Amino acid sequence: MINTKYFKEYRLKLGFSNQQNTKNFFGAKDIVPTVDFNYIALLNSRLVEIVERTNLIVWDNIKVDDIDEFCNKNIFEVFVKLKEHKIIERLNNQGRRPEQVYFSWMRGYIVSLYFLKALSFIFKTDLSNIKIIGDDDLVNINSFKRTPTADLEISLSKFKKVRIEVQSGFQGVNDIKQHKVLEARKIWLEQSIPTIAIHFDMFNGQVAFVRLDNIEGNNINWITRQQMEGQTVFNIEQNYFVWKLTEEPLTIDELDLL
Fold first, then answer.
1. What is the pLDDT along the chain (258 residues), one digit of tens a residue?
2. What are phi and psi of 162, to 5 degrees?
3. Most exposed residue of 44, 77, 110, 169, measured as fewest CB within 10 angstroms of its CB?
4. CA 218 → CA 42, 165, 190, 214, 221, distances in Å?
5. Which residues pair with 130 in a beta bridge?
6. Residue 210 phi/psi, 5° resolution?
7. Is 36:99 a contact under the CB 8 Å cutoff?
8. Cα dihedral sign, 144-132-215-167
9. pTM for the full model?
């Protein structure tokens, strides 16, 4: 008789005591691919090329002065650190290979660092007043993760600060995840510190500025993005994009966000 008892006995004879292990076996899900460091070397070269091409077209006053030094410090040294602490092989996101997750993370990482000089101009402050406060830890897999905490905090004066959520887009889809907005509201209520998302649309060469803590829950820009497992996101409309990457940035006074 074919029934659930037979199914269980059959799987036991194959050597599996539960259904999930059987599925993993037939789908080869239990075989973890080794990291292809030759592939990563090519990805690192592409990261360098992204920086180089960007540096050719942006406004002269925000260009990186020494591309080799920037890339060595923020690409190759970071890669070595991640490799030494065996972080890369443990990266996983929706089933993608660790090399691809690494590349996606690094793209956002280098964009946020590359434009620090631009942020000092926009907020009319010295680079020393821009503090990195994000939660990504390069040597600890348990804290190497996406959290709602903003990437940067800028001291505008002795008593005035603003948090900056730096985002980058490379496919022409420009959204802000809901938890970023909720965290911004929380920080505003608890500490009276505003949060501004600065979204670098690298695909189209434009930058948007969005004040996160005052986005209302009934804003028409809230949508469900099916490509992101049905997540609720704030779609950045075109009117938020006010800086062409090839031109001089606006200053915080001109943006009128604080």
1. 888 888 898 899 999 999 999 998 888 878 877 899 999 999 999 999 999 999 999 999 999 999 999 999 999 999 999 999 888 888 876 678 889 989 999 999 999 999 999 999 999 999 999 998 865 556 565 555 555 566 899 998 877 999 999 999 998 889 999 999 999 999 999 999 999 999 999 999 999 999 999 998 888 788 887 666 668 899 999 999 999 999 999 999 999 898
2. -140, 140
3. 77
4. 44, 22, 22, 11, 8
5. 154
6. -130, 120
7. yes
8. negative
9. 0.84
CA pair distance 5, 91, nearest whole angstrom? 38
The secondary element (H helix, E strand) that includes residue 153 is strand 152-155
- Residues with Cβ within 8 Å of 215's Cβ and at least 6 positions away in sequence, in order, are 181, 184, 221, 234
Distance CA 65, CA 69 (A): 9
SS3 content of the chain, % helix, strand, coil (to 5): 45, 15, 40
- For the chain, give the number of residues: 258
Residues 6 or more apart whose CB falls under 8 angstroms from that of 168 comprise: 107, 108, 111, 112, 199, 200, 201, 202
